Amino acid sequence: MEKKNKQVKVGVSGILLKEGRLLMYKRNKSLGRGLWELPGGNLEFGENFEDCLLREFKEETGLDVKIEKLISIAPSKMYGNHYIVFSFLVSPINLEQKVELLEPDIHQKWEWFNIDNLPTDLFIAAENTLRDFKNGKIHPLF
After folding, report:
1. Contact, 93 vs 49, CB < 8 A?
2. CATH architecture, domain 9-93+102-135
3. How far is CA 57 from the centre of its chain?
4. Given CB 3.0 to 4.6 Å as the disulfide criterion, which of 53, 117, 123, 142 pairs with 35?
């Protein structure tokens, strides 16, 4: 892989659980199309992790969430990209809010999955985050 002009990027994602079910979306972007992923996105210049995740949740789902705690720091190297993804456990602020499909060019659909019966076709970032979450470790080394 050509490393010239490549940069490590920073991303965030969130685990939102509701009655034992986890919110995920099916990717519609060319990278990883059809794989399941957690809500989140790229950190913008000058933005902190928390503001980025709150913005991404609102932009993608229409949901207002509260960040509970950091649950994973995971490198994701795939498709010629290199990300460090910071993932957080979040909770809904308003239990009556419904998930909306606000970015159909990015998300095919949103779905709630039983936390004990998740799909196996996961995007690498979701796979890493969920591994750490289930193991109760922020990173495999810690």
Report:
1. no
2. Alpha-Beta Complex (3.90)
3. 9
4. 123
